[in-house]
Input
Amino acid sequence: MNTPSPFRVFADSGETDREKENFQNYLFKDIDFRDRSNVVSFCRSDFRSVKMHNMYFYKNNFDRADFVNAYLKETTFEQCNFGTDFFNTVFENCTFRGNTFDTSTLNNNRFFYCSFENEHISNTTNRQAGYNNCTFKNCFHEMNSFEDLTFSNCEFEHINLAQMGAYNFSFTNCSFKDFVVDPDYLGSYLFKDSTLQGIKFMYRGNGLSLNENVVEDLRTLSIFFLESGRLFEAFNMTLLYRYYSKKELSIVNYLGNVLDRVATDNHELRKSDQIQRIIKALIFYANSNIISLEETVYTIGQFENKSVSFDSLQDQLQYQNNIYFLKQNIESLLFEEKDFINIDPLKEIYCEISIEERYYEEFKLLLNEYFNSVSNGYGIPELSNYNIIGTRKGSLVIEIIGYAIGIYVLITILKSILIRTLEIKVEYTIYRKTHQLLEDNKMSLKDLEGDINIVRRILNKPSDEIVTKAKPLSLLMKQFSVFPNTLVKRKKHI
Output
């Protein structure tokens, strides 16, 4: 039995006045209004949950109309008039050409493979929109307010955003040609896999001297924002300047200083906004070359060691949620992708494994067999070296220092072979015990020199033997906590 369609089909009756009509749950399909001798007006009409496919609107009036939860595909709007509200609407393979948007409101919309050409947009707000594989060409913007927009695989040509408010944009794999922005907003823009060539500045204020070299101007802006107390923007500009200029700068230390200033800010709204945007920037950049995976891991430790409090419970929960999301993002990179190799696999790190105390001797035997199999599998004898540096009572907690590769491979295997519940945790709090142990000469692991052949072997899938040796360990382990930002500094042994 066929389920009846929830859509009623729109029929072009030939009337030019279709104003104030209720088109909720209507299907608009295969109509070309260019064939009409008289322009059809949809002023103040209701397009909630409408579906449009293969439509061509030409010079139609959509003033004060509402598009809510709508879906538009392969539809063209040409020379139409919009004073329209768009909420939660999806556009796929749509074309906008020569339209006028005046006093429109757009909120939480998504655009896929859409093109915008010769659009005139004024007095319009646009919030939380996503643009994927879209093109923008020769569009005019004036007196608008755009915020929290994401652009992925988009092209911009002859676009000027300097005559409006344009805040908190992110660009992934985008290209720019004659793309004009106000540099006072640039600090809130996130870029990855994008070239900055083609971006131009138009500044309306005073006291900011730019030289039209975009990369050098990033440094100028970072200083300007820092002096102005705009700490997220200063941090973001410093990240981008370091990447595009290929300068050696310590982002970890810089972020520590920024967080100290943010945490003591008495302006609660500003403090919350600054710190949340810093975390969101780290999430955005985590899988890029803007900041290394190792640096991002260290920043999590910094957040967890800073005392940051908020007057609002909502702000506190949002802060904790963003930290959690950043952790999950990093864990996926560490243990589910090969990107974990960005953390030196031949450094020692600290981990804790919880087992029942009665299984301690058996556990030591199985752990030794596992590390030997890793060493043999990768042809690196020294990888079998690890140290059990202590135990704690209760459910026995075994403290281990070993090479990162052995520990990360074990976690990766455990995630795929577990036959019972095992809690695997990644702790990012900076752990100093291992450093103290080294200073006390309680470690004796030999130094290893990096070798590209070693790295290539490590990137290979673990052998069946390694997986086999890891299985018995999973039966004994109750919890596995690794501290990836506790990268132990090896001592030279003469």
The first strand starts at residue 8 and ends at 9. The radius of gyration is 29 Å.
